[in-house]
Design brief:
The chain is of the alpha/beta class. The protein folds into two domains: 405 residues, ANL, N-terminal domain (Rossmann fold), CATH 3.40.50; 103 residues, 2-Layer Sandwich (GMP Synthetase, Chain A, domain 3). It has 17 helices and 26 strands. It is globular and about 75 Å long.
Length: 535
């Protein structure tokens, strides 16, 4: 069992102050808008923004503050300023509707949302809370603000911490609220504490051994738990420099950013990696050393194609918002410590991080299962969320005796590697048998054999069926083979007959609904299927 390091209970804002001093003259953050800050500049501007927010915007009793900011230096400063002011930052999903944004803000009682005019104009979001435009706050900076920030920089770190009230932060105090993606229903506010996020960063550092010369390419939005924990707080509290671009799907701009800054670390989803594979040049990612994909299954053909083009083999990890978010990851050979043994098993999502326990239980009885048996995946550790904001019943449904019920069906092999076989919500019960949608999607992709990592856009879901309870249907945006030929090949692949959709169950659509993370929007996929095929 992992033993916490002495600094693991130190609140993240305090670690941020120390890292800024360590990296005072070293480049620490940059973005595609050509903003570049070293550690000293990062802390100075954070202190100035904190003063502006306290003087012009936030009341003393205002605990939760909304943010609508893309991955950027400005987004980093806004989150850091709230953290050192002991506020709870709530990064809202600007890729969704005004209704969802306002509903999330209302759950937290948010009165102000930090954002930019450019983002509001681009997204056309209509906010119920009062928007605060960061570019306008810059115009309110006075010489006193600059002098106070400079004085804060010159103070010993311990004195600055006490003056900001950071020594009063408890490990179980809430650092952020991140709303679940809402792929299966109404988003829930996940309360993550300083201990949750801090422990996750600490063990991530322990296994991947980040260095001062590492450059993290930050493309995941901060409302995404992986983006918040890894691409935001890794830069704020650990040695690597981070560079940001506001849209992960603008592949050429992401490639340019990586090339200019010498990106060595990339955290993304398979959807985003496919875009980079198609549109980026080998020199864009010439220095990449670690590529970690999560949020959806990482196909073998994509791993091979990315490795062939860029000379860096992506590995797969696993996590959920409620788990801060990282549970497990395969460790690339370049980061494996001497004598560590096998650290990567393709097809798995890796072993649990140090200090995190994983087990699989029977879907019906809850009985613990042994190795190589598929069941519900449960997780326990310091990364398990405090709970859902103002939702005690929903919290009790997933947190029992310290174990979090993930909703994912998995098996753990004899060497401890976790293999995700699907989500419980992504199974159909057909004739009494549980049929995994993900497995059927993977097999359809395999029989199409497109090559070069270029998979079709498709989704399998289930619809009610009077005879068998449910039936499988396939939504797609265009296929190179007819449904009859696909079904014939599926039948010959060894899949159980009940897992093979009928040719009449394929339907071409304009687009497959996706979340901002690149994952399928399961709720909208189901609605689309009902619309296409009828109830």
């Amino acid at each position: 069992m992992h033993r916490p390091h002495p600094q693991s209970e130190m609140a993240l804002p305090r670690q941020f102050l120390r890292m800024c001093h360590v990296a005072a003259r070293r480049p620490k953050v940059a973005d595609s808008a050509e903003v570049r800050l070293n550690g000293a500049q990062l802390l100075t501007r954070t202190l100035i923004l904190r003063r502006l927010l306290r003087r012009h915007v936030l009341g003393r009793d205002e605990q939760y503050v909304g943010l609508l900011v893309p991955p950027s230096v400005g987004g980093v400063l806004a989150n850091a300023a709230l953290a050192i002011d002991c506020r709870v930052a709530v990064n809202l999903n600007y890729a969704t509707s005004s209704e969802v944004v306002n509903g999330s803000a209302a759950q937290c009682g948010i009165r102000h949302v930090l954002t930019t005019r450019k983002l509001i104009e681009r997204t056309e979001l209509k906010l119920d809370a009062e928007p605060v435009f960061l570019e306008e706050l810059r115009e309110k900076v006075t010489w006193r603000d600059k002098a106070a920030a400079a004085a804060g920089w010159l103070l010993p770190v311990g004195v600055l911490e006490r003056s900001l009230g950071l020594t009063r932060i408890e490990p179980d105090d809430v650092l952020t609220v991140i709303f679940t993606s809402g792929s299966t229903g109404r988003p829930k506010g996940v309360m993550l504490t300083h201990r949750n996020v801090g422990s996750n960063i600490e063990v991530f550092q322990e296994i991947l051994r980040f260095r001062a010369d590492d450059v993290l390419v930050g493309v995941l939005p901060f409302f995404h738990s992986f983006g918040y924990t890894v691409t935001l707080w890794t830069a704020l509290s650990l040695p690597p420099k981070a560079v940001y671009h506001y849209s992960p799907l603008e592949a050429r701009q992401v490639g340019k950013l990586s090339r200019e800054h010498g990106g060595t670390l990339l955290i993304a989803t398979p959807t985003f990696l496919r875009a980079y594979l198609r549109r980026c040049e080998p020199e864009d990612f010439a220095k990449l050393d670690v590529v970690i994909a999560g949020a959806e299954k990482l196909p073998a053909d994509l791993i091979d194609a990315f490795d062939k083009k860029f000379g860096c083999r992506p590995v797969e990890g696993y996590g959920t918002t409620e788990l801060s978010p990282v549970v497990s990851v395969n460790i690339p050979p370049s980061r494996t410590a001497p004598g560590q043994g096998e650290t990567i098993r393709e097809g798995s999502v890796g072993r649990p991080l140090p200090g995190i326990e994983a087990k699989v239980v029977d879907l019906d009885t809850g009985e613990d299962l042994g190795p190589d048996k598929s069941g519900m995946l449960l997780i326990r550790g310091p990364n398990v969320m405090r709970g859902y904001l103002n939702m005690p019943e929903e919290t009790a449904e997933v947190l029992r005796d310290g174990w979090y019920t993930t909703g994912d069906v998995a098996l753990i092999d004899r060497e401890g590697f976790i293999h995700i076989t699907g989500r419980l919500s992504r199974f159909s019960k057909i004739g009494g048998e549980m049929v995994p949608h993900l497995r059927v999607e993977e097999e359809i992709t395999r029989v199409l054999d497109l090559g070069d990592g270029d998979a079709p856009t498709l989704a399998v879901t289930g619809l009610p069926d009077a005879k068998k309870g449910e039936r499988l249907v396939v939504l797609h945006t265009g296929l190179p083979l007819t449904p009859d030929e696909i079904c014939r090949r599926l039948a010959g692949s060894g899949l159980p007959p009940i897992w093979v959709p009928s040719p009449e169950s394929f339907r071409q659509v304009g687009e497959i609904p996706l979340l901002a993370s690149g994952k399928l929007d399961l709720r909208r996929v189901k609605e689309q299927a009902l619309s296409e095929f009828g109830g």
